[in-house]
Design a protein that fits this description.
This protein is α/β, with parallel strands linked by helices and about 230 residues long. The protein has seven helices and nine strands; from the N terminus they run E-H-E-H-E-E-E-E-H-E-H-E-H-E-H-H. Helix 5 (about 155-165) links the parallel strand 8 and strand 9 (about 170).
Amino acid sequence: MKVFLDVGSNRGQTVSAILEPKYEFDRIYCFEPVPELQQVIAKQYRDPRIVINEVGLWNQTCEMPIFSPGSQSGSIFADKVNVDPQHSCICKFVQASDWFREHLSDTDEVYVKLNCEGCEVDIIEDLLDSNEYRKITSLGVAFDVKKIPSQRGRERAIKRRLEECGYGNYVDIELKHGGCLRQKIQTWLSIAGADRPSLSNRIRQIVYRCQTFGARVARYARRRLVGG
């Protein structure tokens, strides 16, 4: 399957950019730990391909406070710029490598957006440590650690580690042209070739859609039999 992971969905700004038909994503997984933002996404988007995960991704499964929840700068780091350390809510997180291991296969075509206000380096490190990073076709990442005094310096270190591991499949979406997030996301996906579907991906999509249609027909038939 062709899969998109929107890590740090906020109000669904990225979702609106990737629903364009040219990308042909089979599944779109949204990760948003703040309840009020989860509700915004659920109300705004009804596409059956979208799965809203009411958790954030991190390097462990736990509950953590998010400071300034509901804002575009909300973070688990109280010293992040534009964050109010006096305003927080407790949110759920799952370990990224565990989620990858359970939900993604080596044959999937996986695009991952990390815009998670400082958690991005911890997530990448966890995926590298577990070798789950190998499943990523392309990574679009905003390095928000530069906005956090306690985390500064980690951007350079993780870029060096990615290079040492032989991974050049990431784009710093903050450095790409385009003033708004939508433009940056689409520029990254264009660079990654996500808008140029391959023959093998088309075949996978046809098989997936046939399976999905067959499942719907089976459910409809069961309902008719029970009703009759």
